[in-house]
Amino acid sequence: MAMSVKNMYIIIVTLGVLSFIFGVIAEHKKPANGTAILGKGVVICKYRSDHTVALGLLSFIFLAASGVFGFSSLFYPYKGKSIPQAVLLRSTSFVVFLNVALGITGLAAVLLLWPTISEQLHIPRNIHHNLNTECPTAKTGLLGGGAFLSLDSSLFWLVCLMLANNARDDYFEDAADRGCSKR
């Protein structure tokens, strides 16, 4: 089955929205802290069972998929016709939006992975020798911020795809005009 630009729009937006939803749910379900249990010279932190790590990873996976589909959709040969990359990279607005989309995707990945990994590390490292420990969890707000940035990144990938599609149409229109003028 050949992919169309419309199918790529739908795939990129769907993956971006799923990443957003999983990230927001992960932020909402994340516990503020664990329960401290005093022992002999140590504090043992007991964390309630939650799905923050799994939801954070799902959000990251959907963000990565959205970024991969977004980037590959720009250079995909739709209807079996490809254009040189130099034609796309000649457009200043395309290059700017491409760099912004890459940057936002990377920042969203960092904001999703940082609390997910740190939350995962808190669970096995639950014995603290500082008796004033309050059983920390991952920083609050990072998952939610990453979720919003993942939605933003999918929208920037859509803008890039629209600009690439316009450049593609112009390229083939110019090629058709050059072909007609030779006759």
Structure description:
By secondary structure, the protein is mainly α. The protein has one domain. The chain is 68% helix and 5% strand. The chain contains 5 helices and 3 strands; from the N terminus they run H-E-E-H-H-H-E-H. The protein has a 3-stranded antiparallel beta sheet with strand order 1-2-3, with no helix packed on it.
Termini, distance in Å?
Answer: 35 Å
Strand order of the largest sheet: 1-2-3
| Main pleated sheet | 3 strands, antiparallel
Helix content percent band: 55-70%
- Shape assignment: rod-shaped
| Share in β-strands | 5-15%
- Count of helix runs: 5
Unreliable stretches (pLDDT < 50, length at least 5) are: none
Rg, nearest Å: 23 Å
The run of helices and strands is HEEHHHEH
Number of domains: 1
Structural class: mainly alpha
Q: Mean pLDDT across all residues, rounded?
A: 88
| Total beta strands | 3
Main location: membrane
Membrane topology: Multi-pass membrane protein
Family: Belongs to the DESIGUAL family.
InterPro entries: DEAL/Modifying_wall_lignin1/2, DESIGUAL
